[in-house]
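User: Please predict the structure of the protein below. I'd like the answer in structure-token form so I can feed it into my own downstream comparison script.

Assistant: Understood. Taking the following sequence of 200 residues as input:
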Amino acid sequence: MRASILRDLRSAAVATVVLTAILGLGYPALMTGFAQVAFKSQADGSLITLKGRVVGSKLAAQAFTSASYFHERPSATSPAYNAAATTFSNLGPTDPALATEVHQQIAAILKLESPYNPGLTVHDIPVDAVVPSGSGIDPEISIAYADLQSRRVAALRHLPLESVAALIKRYTDGRSWGLFGEPGVNVLELNIALDRESGR
């Protein structure tokens, strides 16, 4: 009986070591190597470089405060747009704090966009302009929010509105697999393209 128990323990220990080596070390190393060969950009974090310098990731929002840039949706992280600590606001639809945040965002957008969008009302403001995403650093905004900002950006950069609209279209990602989610405009890529267009 004792010999049987020792044999079982030995078998269990060997199985643990072998499976740990295969599934804990070998398989992850194999997948990492495959990703580096087949999907290097995505495996490295979809980083965006400009003049040989990493300026961000296609997957993470950044704060753009200048009125001549397109702005991201609000961020729930602390500090804002912190890719190292993604989070959501955790405020329910009946939470007064959520209503306060939304009203503050609406007021800020009306103040910023109204001079370039005469007759702009709260009903013209897309939802993603006033509430953060689930991650707090969503890199994309809706086409509607990009269109709302396009007149401001075109005016301040002295670019034809048609040129700005064409850039929005170029940096709009469609639905995943053509089925899931909604089209979104990558703000970082769009702003980099705007700087190129403006000769900055």
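That's the full token string. The chain has a mean pLDDT of 84.
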